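Pilot study result, target chain (106 residues):
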Amino acid sequence: YVAALTDFHVTGFPRDLVLIVSGATADFTIGEQAQEGGIRTVRLTDAVGADKLVASAYTAGLTVFSLGGNDAITTGSGADIINLAGSGSVVVDSGAGDDSIRVSGT
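Predicted structure:
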């Protein structure tokens, strides 16, 4: 199963929302509307899939957790934190900004 998601509008929720992607190989883009809606963290929980996250339009800092698999992660100009764990080959383009990439696992 492959899930595809393009930027979406989020209203009526508190800031600092967490978007959890689980159980499918996902290919999705989050942008201005998701940022305005308060999404600040994305968790890619499929440890064996090849998830693709594009958040290049983000200007706020974004925290991303990749729990393994062959993921591709692109973030924007904010001060991003990208956490990589588990096994797999992950490609990261963290864009501009004062970014941190943390690696644990194999």
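One observation from the pilot: DSSP finds one helix and ten strands in the chain. A full batch analysis is planned for the follow-on phase.
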